[in-house]
Amino acid sequence: MGALTRTFQTDEKKEQEGSWITIVVNDDKSIARVRVKRMGPSNKAFTKRYAMLTRQLRAVRGDKEELEKQALIEAFLDHCLVGWENIENLLPVEQGKKRDPYMPFSKENARLLFEKLPEVLDDIVIKAMDVTTFQAEQPETELKNSSPSSNTP
Known about the structure:
Elements: H1 3-8, H2 12-17, E1 19-25, E2 31-36, H3 44-57, H4 64-79, E3 81-85, H5 107-116, H6 118-129, H7 140-146
Antiparallel strand pairs: 1-2, 2-3
Helix pairs in contact: 3-4, 5-6
């Protein structure tokens, strides 16, 4: 396998079913992570939905940047974000009730997360477009064979 293939070839199953992305290590040492499908041309459902939503925006008056962000969020929730684990609970506290430290995954909870912490969305989107997020794990022997030789200047 050549360098170009090693650098850009992805695992189709990861692109279609999703790959786990670590967001942060929580205070209790659990890992906050999300599972996303590839965001880009290989995810035709996402691309089609996003295109449709942005076409609809052309007829709407208002802050175009904000409307485009909403279109991105909707398409992302519909076709990229598959699930999560150990995401901090941002739901309102109900008086007198014990609260789980982590939010269950749902589209509504994801909207809340992205509204309260928009940088989390930005980080996830960048990683959902990154080819390395969806590459197959390379066997250790292949990694050794692909590293530059010590004889190379």
